């Protein structure tokens, strides 16, 4: 069973920064690519960042490229999304996700998600 738990969401002013974290089962960090998705009310879920198991490659959606940074520490079982220069349109529920492959392969097809942490950006 894949278990993913996010933390770090909150309320921040536009232009500010926020750091999200995710932890999970050991086998996720031993084998799987991981990523972050977000979903705003009334909108479809959007993939925003993906990182290979080895951290060799990262991928970002155009909407966050240059502002968000994804990283992982497999030994500590920790996935991080550093969000800078936040905008009101970044407001959403953010979900950590795992893909049953060591590589992102440029795909947003993932297999498991956490329950999410809310990020609200005030303008």
Mean pLDDT: 95
Structural class: mainly beta
Proportion of β residues?
A: over 45%
SSE string, helices as H and strands as E: EEEHEEEEEEEE
Oligomer: single chain
Ends distance: 39 Å
Number of helices: 1
| Low-pLDDT residue spans | none
Gyration radius (Cα, Å) is 13 Å
Please provide the count of β strands.
Answer: 11
The global form is globular
Helix content percent band: under 10%
Outline the biggest β-sheet.
7 strands, mixed
What does this structure look like?
The chain has about 120 residues and is mainly β. It is about 5% helix and about 50% strand. The chain contains one helix and eleven strands, in the order E-E-E-H-E-E-E-E-E-E-E-E. The strands form two sheets. Strands 2, 4, 5, 6, 9, 10 and 11 form a seven-stranded mixed beta sheet that branches. A hairpin with a 6-residue loop joins strand 5 (about 45-50) and strand 6. The relative contact order is 0.32.
């Amino acid at each position: 069973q894949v278990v993913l738990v996010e933390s770090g969401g909150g309320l921040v002013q536009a232009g500010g920064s926020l750091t999200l974290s995710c932890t999970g089962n050991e086998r996720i960090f031993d084998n799987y690519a991981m990523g972050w998705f977000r979903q705003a009310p009334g909108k479809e879920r959007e993939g925003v960042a993906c990182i290979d198991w080895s951290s060799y490659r990262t991928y970002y959606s155009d909407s966050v490229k240059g502002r968000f940074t994804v990283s992982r520490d497999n030994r500590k079982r920790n996935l991080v999304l550093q969000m800078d220069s936040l905008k009101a349109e970044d407001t959403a529920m953010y979900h950590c996700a795992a893909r049953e492959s060591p590589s992102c392969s440029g795909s947003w097809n993932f297999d498991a998600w956490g329950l999410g942490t809310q990020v609200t950006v005030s303008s």
